[in-house]
Amino acid sequence: MKRLWELDVARGLMLVLMTITHVPSRFTDPVGQPFGFVSAAEGFVLLSAFVSGLVYSRIGYAQGVDVMRRAFWRRALKIYLIQAALLLFVFTVITAVGLRVDHTEIKEMVRYYLAHPHDALTYSLLLVYQPAFLDILPMYILFMLMSPWVIAFAMRHGWQWPIAVSATLWAVAQFGSTQWLYAVVSSRLHVPVPYDETGSFDTFTWQFLWFVGMWMGASRNAPDAQPFTFPRWLLGGAIVVAGFCLGWRHFGPTGQAPFGDDAGLNLLFDKWHLGPLRLVNLAALCIVAIRFGPPLLNRLPWRPRVLEAMGSASLPVFCAHLVAVFLVLSFVGRNNPATSWASDVLLLAVVFCGLYAVAWWVQRREEKEKSEKNDRPGRLTPRTGTPSAAAPAPAPPVTAGSTRRA
């Protein structure tokens, strides 16, 4: 399957923005929520879901639901092992350095681990306890485990019911159902981890973003798939909403908090629970990006290879950016008044060089694996002119109408 370089560029841009937001510097606040009251996290999750729907639904149509399900599970296992490695890194190296340097940020980040090390280790591996910055990969794992069942249902019955159920869960979660459900389950199962140590992202709201993105990606594999088009009134309204929120965010008096100190109204734009006005802002940005993004990218005098490389290796680069954030917090701390603009620029330059090095290494490794795969036995043998025994003849592709049931 040919990669869509525009999607890789977009994911690379999201990774750059997330890195600037997470690495403490003078650029953190100005770059936070750069497109209005929407952060890079929403864009990254939506793009990842789109790519997952595009790739895995094609596997389901061509090779069957069972093959697609196993592909999802392999990806989920890979992400879980990465999460476990990051937890081990934080609980050992970062905690030791943070305690030795005596940085408040690190002690606050692992406060539950410091108070209850055995419970923290056990329940972090069960994806319940999620320290700061380590709460997005568990969400990905859960979504990956759920996705093959949703796609398999949608392949047979359409996406109307999955999206309707997902939207209902999002709406109910706006009224605190996630915290209530956790309280009930944790009391029955005697889980000692407090709710505020289970991560910042509300899984029951963010699943809606994931499955909408997956539906958009999977729809591209439909036999009658048409390019995304929007009526003029909707496109015009999206431009107005996106432009208004962009101006409100960067030129309004309240900065990243749209309604200042009014906590109740700010919930309408809340990031962690995906407030309704935040979704409106995100939908407007998506419509504008889909309509104008590809033409603008194709008119660039050069192809943004750096962003493309980072986006194509999004998972390793994302994990490398977390390692960089942890190291900076451990050795430098947050909002250090002794740093200068030059030191902040140098710090970010070093971090981005490291992230690009990771992307470059992943790209070279994938090219090598692809070359080795193409060189494997399977060519016509010199004597018989028939396929060699090492390469069985490929099975005919399974069409969408004959896809095996889950």
Output the keywords:
mainly alpha, disordered C terminus, 17 helices, transmembrane, 406 residues
Write the layout of secondary structure elements.
Blueprint: H1 5-22, H2 28-31, H3 40-63, H4 65-101, H5 104-109, H6 111-115, H7 117-125, H8 137-157, H9 160-173, H10 177-189, H11 203-218, H12 232-251, H13 263-266, H14 276-298, H15 305-312, H16 314-331, H17 341-374
Helix pairs in contact: 1-3, 1-15, 1-16, 3-4, 3-8, 3-11, 4-8, 4-16, 8-11, 9-11, 12-14, 15-17, 16-17
Region (Disordered): 366-406
Biased composition (Low complexity): 381-406
Protein name: Acyltransferase
Descriptive account of the structure:
With 406 residues, this protein is mostly helical. It has one domain (5-222, 230-367). The chain is built from 17 helices and no strands. The chain is globular and about 60 Å long. The protein starts with a helix and ends in a 32-residue tail after the last helix. Residues 366-378 have a biased composition (Basic and acidic residues). The chain crosses the membrane at residues 12-28, 34-56, 77-99, 132-154, 161-183, 203-221, 233-252, 272-292, 313-333, 345-362. This is Acyltransferase.
Estimate what percentage of residues fall within beta strands. under 5%
In helices, the fraction of residues equals 55-70%
Structural class: mainly alpha
β-strand number: 0
Shape: globular
How far the N terminus sits from the C terminus, by CA atoms, comes to 24 Å
Average pLDDT metric: 89
Q: Over the alpha carbons, how many angstroms does the gyration radius reach?
A: 23 Å
User: How can the largest sheet be summarized?
Assistant: none
Q: How many separate helices?
A: 17
Number of domains: 1
User: Which spans of ≥5 residues are poorly predicted at pLDDT below 50?
Assistant: 379-406
Order of helices and strands: HHHHHHHHHHHHHHHHH
